[in-house]
């Protein structure tokens, strides 16, 4: 008898399951809108030209393969923090931001979860928006936090349930942790407005909640890295101490290179040094030190003015293509096909994803009859649409809802 004979088969990953079904489908019209990775106008993965140049620069410097320090490449973490907090950030100027390189956004969130579970003195409760990125729930649970939720999505309006969000944060126990998607909320594509962020900041202050920002899409939402950092910078300006997860998977297209950063703002340089020491104690037994290649690439872009400018325009190019797909899809459904329902949310949502409002039976029909694959909650990756498939997609949605 094998020692593993009692191991039960777990459920397959919801999103990777869609990719399997898509791969098995032989119809030439098939479309995969499940995966959260950017695709170009031809439906192909996109390597940013600025990233290609950065790779050449890194290679030309003939770097060795030595281990990085536990908290990663120092130039990279400094520049990543600058990108997020901005050059005018007071805690950055004061040397009071503790930052470590991480295994992309997921790793940053996990380091953050572990750090809060060990060292945040006020609460073990973390409030996540409903819905949220599916991986947040097991990730924070496995970090040792109690996962709770606050209202975020209004099914009726396919918009933000701002009243519900405020009521739930106001009712949260004092000191609880609140996870905020900094921009391009996944899966809904719905972000608070700057005015709403200001109100959220006020509630967080009044209830002494602790804000933990997940910024997986800086630049990807609006096309501007500054605009997309509004929420984080506003909270810091308002005097909040924050935790922040950053990913360079989407905005630099460095998915498999696993480049990210986790940071916390502290009172002063001495406190930062103490926090740094505890971050090292968390990281060392998990994976010792992070991979070096992606951080070098990202840092080559962040530290070179010309490449940085080029990168910013390439991020904007990706965001703009997605925004133009939203425009086209809205026009097809609302104006050309007169598809039943109101489709304005397709245009007002932002970032990689759109919550279409399609229900599970409609998404099932789309997969089975039209070879169009998306998550059962009706979320589509806008990046999977292009000039070659958007008409067919709109017609398929039209059929599915009639
Ligand atoms: N957070 C959110 C909201 C995401 O959508 C993602 C990726 O889809 C991540 C974090 C982490 O991604 P990665 O670990 O690839 O950086």
From TrEMBL:
Which Pfam families does this UniProt record tie to the protein? Aminotran_1_2
UniProt keyword annotations, A-Z: Aminotransferase, Pyridoxal phosphate, Transferase
GO CC terms on record? mitochondrion
Using the UniProt record, name the top-level EC class of this enzyme in a single word.
transferase
* EC number annotated for this UniProt entry: 2.6.1.1
Q: Which Gene Ontology terms describe the biological processes this protein takes part in?
A: L-aspartate catabolic process
In its keyword annotation, does this UniProt entry include Cytoplasm? no
Q: Name one GO molecular function term.
A: pyridoxal phosphate binding
| Cofactor needs | pyridoxal 5'-phosphate
Q: Does the keyword Transferase apply?
A: yes
Give all residue intervals belonging to the Aminotransferase class I/classII large domain: 29-396
Q: Which family does it belong to?
A: Belongs to the class-I pyridoxal-phosphate-dependent aminotransferase family.
Query: What other comment is given for this protein?
Result: In eukaryotes there are cytoplasmic, mitochondrial and chloroplastic isozymes.
Instruction: Give the multimer and partner information.
Output: Homodimer.
- Supply the name of the protein: Aspartate aminotransferase
What species was this sequence derived from?
Hypholoma sublateritium (strain FD-334 SS-4)
The taxonomy runs: Eukaryota, Fungi, Dikarya, Basidiomycota, Agaricomycotina
